[in-house]
Amino acid sequence: MTPYYVRSFSTRPHILGLIISCIISGAAFPANSQDFNFNVDVLDVNDRKNIDLNQFSRAGFVMPGDYIMSVNINKQQLREQPVSFYAPDNDPKGSDACITPELVEQIGLKPQMKEKLSWWHNGECLVADSLKGTVVKSDLSASTVYLSIPQAYLEYTSDDWDPPSRWDNGIPGLLFDYNVNAQGQRQSKSGDKSYNVSGNGTVGANFDVWRFRADWQSRYNHQSGNESSNKVTWDWSRYYAYRAIARLGAKLTLGENYLNSDIFDSFRFTGVTLATDDGMLPPNLRGYAPEVTGVAKTNAKVIISQQGRVLQQTQVASGPFRIQDINDAVTGKLDVRVEEQDGSVQEFSINTANIPYLTRPGTIRYKIASGRPTDWRHHASGPMFGSGEFSWGINNGWSLYGGGVSDGRYNALALGIGRDLLFLGALSFDATQSRTKLPHSDETYSGGSYRLSYSKRFDDYDNQVTFAGYRFSQKNYMSMSEYLDARITGVRTQNSKEMYTISFNQQFREAGLSAYLNYNHQTYWDRPDNDRYDVTVASYFDLGRLKNLSLSLTAFRNKYNGHTDDGMYLSLSLPIGSDASLSYNGSWGRSDSTNKASYYKRVDEHNNYQVSSGLSHSKALASGYYSHEGNIAQVDANATYQEGEYSSVGLSVQGGATATLKGAALHRTSIIGGTRILLDTDGVADVPVSGYGSTTASNRFGKVVLADVSNYYRNKLSIDLNKLPENAEAIRSVTQATLTEGAIGYRKFEVISGKKAMAVLRLADGSTPPFGATVRNSKNQSVGIVNDGGSVYLSGIKAGETMKVFWDGKEQCELPLPKNLLISEETNLLLPCHLVAVNKK
């Protein structure tokens, strides 16, 4: 029996460097532009007749066959896909990549260029010369086909955006995303305890281009003491399906939806919507997304909802907060509720709006919807309606827009115009006229509403008016949502009169100051005014030996439904090194004040915490906040204690599960129900993968899901080579994907896993495989090249696996590895190579 272990033998592990040096030094001379003949006399090998360098004799030569390879177009990478290599009719010993019609569709050629294409191999493969200047090259070591195509032949692309021909609809799969918040509190004086658990999320399924979704929300409240109670609610708040229609640049939605309009107020309905999607445009042409700002007095939970449906809820630390990751498809009024740990509640509303409605010259954007209004319990609340709106880019400076909505008893028409004022900004004005006849009433309400909007960034003054607007509505003007409420109650409510809104940023760079103002003023014909504004001033400065201090002051006033809440927040922070800081925080309100000192520490890219101590209401206060960005969930925990008043704890867990036929994984997520990508690390566990933010490791099955990837944006994903497990190496460590909204993308990294060791290969007659033969594992990955005397440095060695050795363009023998194979750093293997059956014959 041939032994598997030897103590020592002569090895030359630098085979690749030797071959390259031979070519450079003249050991190889070109026979033509593609062929090379090697002068083997210069090689330091014992048996010069036993050499196989056929695979190196042609630059970029790939043996005919089928491969999984990436495709690069002018340095822009497409997804991995099968690529076949065939010998051309005029060169039987050659090999060219077959660029199929399916692959040509992904290239993004202009329509007029497609008419010039010619084909070979029975019409299956593109003749590269049919597009003058096009070059196709292949690199098997990088598993990549490179296409160099003149830019004039291609549709518009940018560094981070692909044309629709390259969009990926992903693979079929199921998803379950959740956001669960738990809070508990104990009153010091009475001893009463209370706790609540709330959650919201999305259940979904993807099939081909369709995304099927169901949103849920739930809450459980428990109160102990004299008035002990338990309350549980669970609601499926929305059922819907949608898909992208690339050739229209639009999104089709079926089921329960909210009217997403830049002109009319939003309301809930069940029906169909077809709307151009700004997300399909290049990033620099996309629209505006709303943000929510405020100040939390304590560790608090912020709930953002619209007409009863929870859009987002998150726990925030005490102090100013700014939530900017709301979906940019959300428009209309948003209700914000801030639940403090001391039991107090802040409530206010914000009106989201787009920047002035401008459209590119010659382009028409549109939104069409039809259905039946419904309430949050899925019950119809009105008759069938239809709505439509458009925006037409007349020329470089002017845009015309308008629309209408009607259900027979309610009718509204709008018309507006937008103007690009160049260095003065952008301005739009529109007028809406409504005519309403309520059921069981002969009275007709008719009135108008007028809106003026402005946006501008003043680069010379280093400031920006993000959005400023004014709207006036006559007393008898009714929006569709007001009309629907009046149908049910018989009474008009929320009869809007005037609205002012502004968001303004100013930088004073020389002084190290910045200022931010957000203001919203709403008046009504039939109830008190609502006001919401906050001002923040921040400064970064040095004080003697103390460097990079930051000071910020935030003041706010919230006047909502007759209740007024004022407050001020002051923060002074001193960094300690690169990952820690000390700070002072003070807050003052109408009835309370708090002063505390805090210590913040960033443990690593996944963990950070903050501890605080101070006085509130002249009583001792202590609190802590901890955040962990895990592989399977985002976890935030907090605790607060106030002397003689209460103690409380809070926990937030947000994540999801995605399952496909390619694999499944638990994962963290911040955009519920959003786009994601399943990455396959070739069955190797604990491979660190990064996309946005920190890295995430693959699970025990070699799968990892990265959620929150951008729609219609070239997402780049990579393996962190510095954190790879010791016995793993990545053949390909970077990939990318441009996914449609809601897609579950799939990409596979080629990873070799196993031990590494030097070995000598022996055939049955005692000879060795030829110099230059390649060793491949069961996944057909190249794991070694044979050197002089059959020596080879092998990677990816696994006990019980069978490797194969190739030369002369085909498999010649097999290397069965024993099941009890033990390898250490000093192990040298002697491996018998058994001829395959076809060669034995």
From TrEMBL:
The region annotated as signal peptide is 1-33
PapC-like C-terminal domain mapped to chain residues? 761-815
Q: Which SUPFAM superfamilies match?
A: FimD N-terminal domain-like
Q: Which GO terms describe its cellular component?
A: cell outer membrane
Q: What keywords does the record list, in alphabetical order?
A: Cell outer membrane, Fimbrium biogenesis, Membrane, Signal, Transmembrane, Transmembrane beta strand, Transport
Give the record's GO biological process terms: pilus assembly
PapC N-terminal domain residues: 37-182
**Record membrane topology:** Multi-pass membrane protein
Q: Which InterPro entries match?
A: Fimb_usher (IPR000015), Fimbrial_membr_usher_CS (IPR018030), FimD_plug_dom (IPR042186), PapC-like_C (IPR025949), PapC-like_C_sf (IPR043142), PapC_N (IPR025885), PapC_N_sf (IPR037224)
Any GO MF annotation of the entry: fimbrial usher porin activity
Q: Name one Pfam family in it.
A: PapC_C
Q: Where in the cell is it found?
A: Cell outer membrane
Instruction: Report the principal subcellular site.
Output: membrane
Enumerate the PANTHER family for this protein: OUTER MEMBRANE USHER PROTEIN, OUTER MEMBRANE USHER PROTEIN YFCU-RELATED
Q: What is this protein called?
A: PapC/FimD family outer membrane usher protein
